[in-house]
Design goal:
Layout lengths: L1 H22 L3 H33 L16 H4 L12 H9 L10 E10 L6 E3 L4 E2 L4 E10 L3 E10 L5 E11 L2 E5 L5 E2 L9 E8 L2 E11 L1 H8 L5 E2 L2 H6 L10 H18 L1
Helix pairs in contact: 1-2
Length: 275
C-alpha cells in the first residue's frame, strides 16, 4: 500500500516538473519540487530500515529455554518425552536393570520397562517400592516386573531374590502368556521377612526369561521411619489403578520367549555385522 502511494506521488511530481518546464521561467518551482522528491525518497529509506529491524526482531529466537531445566530432567521417560501416563512410562531404573543384566535396551525384544517390589505389613494394602529403600519392619515382599514384547509370546519367567552375600533367599518360576505390548508380571507367592534375616547391604532381584537373564535390580532396606519419609518423596507408594488392572491379564501366546530371545540375539548379531 505504501509503495503504490509513493509511486503515484513520484509520478505526480514528474508530471508537475514537465508542466513547469513547458511554461518556462520556473526555476524556483523546480527547486521546490526537487526538494519534495528528496523528502519522499528519504521517507522510503527510513520506512524500509524500520521494516527490516522489525522483521529481525520477530524472527529472533531464544534457544536457551530448552536447556534451562536440563539438570532436573534426569528421568528416562522425561528425557525421551514419554507420555505422563503410567501405562506408557519407561522407568530409568528398569533400563539400568536391563543393562546390568548385560543387554542393550535398544536391541532387546523382551524389555523390562518397570521393576520393583510389592510389600505388605499387617492388614494394610500393598505398597510399591522401585528405587527407595524398603522399611525393615515389613512382613512380606513380592517381586514384580513389567515386560514389553513386540508380539504375543509364551514362556517361563523366574523371579530370584538374593541377599547382600549373593545367596538366593527366594526363587519362583511361573509360565506366562504375554500379549503384544506391556505385561505386568508377579509371582503368586510372597517372601516372608523374619527377625533372623540379615537385611544389611544391597540385595538383588533378578528376572530370568526361559533361562536368559533380562533384568537385575538392586535394592536395600532401611530403618522403617526414614524409609517411609523417603518413599513419599519419590514415585513409590500405593498400587495404582493401572497396576491393579494389569495383574492377572493374559492372552493366548503365539511365540515362545525362547523364540523372542533368539530373535533378539539374531538382531544384535546382524547389527554388529552391519557395522
Amino acid at each position: 500500500m505504501s509503495d503504490n502511494r509513493n509511486t503515484w506521488f513520484l509520478a505526480f511530481i514528474l508530471m508537475a516538473l514537465g508542466a513547469v518546464a513547458l511554461l518556462g521561467n520556473s526555476f524556483p518551482v523546480i527547486l521546490v519540487l526537487l526538494g519534495l522528491l528528496f523528502l519522499v525518497r528519504q521517507f522510503d529509506s527510513d520506512d524500509s530500515s524500520s521494516n527490516l529491524s522489525s522483521s529481525a526482531t520477530a524472527e529472533r529466537y531464544d534457544y536457551s529455554y530448552a536447556y534451562e531445566d536440563e539438570d532436573e530432567e534426569d528421568d528416562y521417560e522425561i528425557f525421551h518425552q514419554q507420555p505422563a501416563s503410567a501405562e506408557q512410562r519407561v522407568y530409568r531404573h528398569a533400563l539400568d536393570s536391563v543393562m546390568r543384566a548385560g543387554l542393550n535396551p535398544d536391541e532387546t525384544e523382551v524389555l523390562a520397562v518397570d521393576i520393583g517390589l510389592l510389600t505388605t505389613q499387617g492388614d494394610s494394602g500393598p505398597q510399591v517400592y522401585r528405587t527407595w529403600s524398603l522399611p525393615d519392619d515389613i512382613d512380606y515382599i513380592q517381586p514384580f516386573v513389567q515386560l514389553r514384547v513386540p508380539m504375543e509370546a509364551v514362556g517361563n519367567i523366574r523371579f530370584e531374590i538374593l541377599d547382600a552375600r549373593g545367596a538366593p533367599v527366594y526363587i519362583h518360576e511361573d509360565g506366562f502368556q504375554l500379549r503384544r505390548g506391556r505385561n505386568f508380571l508377579t509371582p503368586n507367592t510372597r517372601m516372608p521377612l523374619h527377625d533372623q534375616m540379615e537385611l544389611d547391604g544391597k540385595w538383588t532381584l533378578r528376572i530370568v526369561a526361559d533361562g536368559v537373564d533380562i533384568a537385575e535390580h538392586h535394592f536395600e532396606y532401611a530403618e522403617a521411619t526414614s524409609a517411609s519419609i523417603r518413599r513419599h518423596m519419590g514415585e513409590d507408594g500405593e498400587i495404582n489403578a493401572e497396576m491393579q488392572a494389569a495383574i492377572g491379564e493374559s492372552h493366548p501366546g503365539k511365540m515362545s520367549l525362547d523364540d523372542l530371545l533368539a530373535f533378539q540375539d539374531d538382531e544384535s548379531e546382524s547389527r554388529r555385522s552391519a557395522r
